[in-house]
Design goal:
Layout lengths: L1 H14 L5 H4 L5 H13 L10 E6 L4 E6 L11 H14 L33 H4 L28 E5 L5 E8 L3 H14 L21 E2 L2 E2 L12 H5 L13
Helix pairs in contact: 3-6
Length: about 250
């Protein structure tokens, strides 16, 4: 009997399905992400007014949800699906409880001579994981990236770490499909709508992970700046909601 019990336990351990709930149950699901992304895309974000892809990853970098705002998977730039996942992975991978770095904050730091030069070459995308499956499932609750860690580093606007009410980083959000500056604006609105913007600290003047427009003649005054994109994105950025306050310890 003991042997049978042990065998059953081993079988259960080896062949049990991955417990995705352990990773993603504290993060927005596909329905919530799609609703927030669609609503944010409707607003003026200063860019080309295009439809968007959005991805959420958990703290381990596992993809939890992928969604799009358009009528179908072909209504957004096809290449932006994986870029959105890269952005989510980057913001999560390079943010901590005490310091949030958006992908927009990384732009200048990775340029030649920057403090993080070469970062964009690290953690490459696992292309086999990122592009497998049927394209008809892309952006749905059955997106083939869900449950996978595809990796990737992206260093322009659109990626934000996700922080709960206690100021703990619990994952990342990436959006892509417009100018990188508009992507940041849309991502910021999506994160705010999902109530996961309790950012404890950042490199922007207001101590958040906001996009910083301080690039002149190709150089960022503070080292974490992002160039403007030619539209009115920088004007819209000034109207974005402030990050939410971190809940005081009891």
């Amino acid at each position: 009997m003991k042997k049978l019990t042990l065998a059953a336990a081993l079988f259960s351990t080896i062949f049990a399905a991955p417990a995705m709930a352990d990773h993603c149950d504290h993060l927005p699901d596909h329905k919530a992400l799609k609703a927030a992304l669609t609503e944010a895309r409707k607003e003026n974000n200063g860019g080309f007014n295009l439809d968007m892809w959005g991805t959420i990853v958990d703290r381990s970098g596992t993809v939890c949800a992928v969604a799009y705002s358009g009528a179908d998977e072909g209504s957004q730039w096809p290449g932006s699906r994986v870029i959105s996942a890269q952005k989510a992975n980057t913001a999560n991978a390079f943010s901590l409880d005490g310091l949030a770095l958006s992908t927009a904050n990384l732009y200048s730091a990775v340029q030649p001579g920057g403090s993080l030069f070469g970062l964009q070459e690290s953690n490459p995308v696992d292309a086999e994981e990122a592009y497998e499956g049927s394209a008809s499932d892309f952006g749905t609750s059955s997106d083939p990236m869900v449950g996978k860690r595809i990796g990737g580093v992206n260093v322009f606007g659109g990626g934000l770490a996700l922080y709960n009410a206690e100021g703990k980083v619990i994952g990342g959000l990436g959006v892509s499909g417009d100018s990188s500056c508009a992507d940041h604006n849309i991502g910021w609105k999506v994160r705010h709508a999902l109530s996961l913007d309790h950012v404890p600290a950042g490199v922007a003047a207001d101590k958040s992970d906001a996009i910083i427009y301080d690039v002149k003649n190709g150089k960022s005054a503070g080292g974490f700046g992002h160039p403007t994109c030619g539209g009115k994105e920088n004007t819209v950025a000034k109207t974005l909601p402030k990050v939410s306050a971190v809940k005081a310890a009891e």
